[in-house]
Amino acid sequence: MKNAVGLVGVIIILGICIVPIIKLATLTVAYKLLASVTQPIADSKVTSLLEQIGDIFKIFLAILSSISFMIIIGTTLVLKISNSGMMYR
């Protein structure tokens, strides 16, 4: 019973974490695409700004992905520890 509840909990956490990851990935691609589209039209400072915003979103994406991965690993470890404690009773 605990394993099923733990698995459902990990899937729910994964579902909660995947939505912001998809949004940040979309924003990263959008800003990089916008920078490439505005390059022939706009000033180089504007293009540079848009590229830097895309890079910042890429860093946010890496941070969010690693934290989501750590939360899933931590939840799994807590579930395994609680199940091994029940084994010794």
Provide the gyration radius in Å. Answer: 20 Å
Structural class by helix and strand composition: mainly alpha
The major β-sheet equals: none
Helix content: over 70%
Q: How far from one another are the termini? A: 17 Å
How many helix segments? Answer: 2
Fraction of residues in β-strands = under 5%
Question: What features would you describe in this structure?
Answer:
With 89 residues, the chain is mostly helical. The chain has one domain (2-82). It has two helices and no strands. The chain has helices at residues 2-38, 44-87. It is rod-shaped and about 70 Å long. The chain starts with a helix and ends with a helix. The model has no long low-confidence stretch (mean pLDDT 87).
Layout of SSEs?
Layout: H1 2-38, H2 44-87
Helix pairs in contact: 1-2
Attribute tags:
89 residues; mainly alpha; 2 helices; rod-shaped
In a nutshell, what does this entry contain?
The protein is mainly α and 89 residues long. The protein contains two helices and no strands.
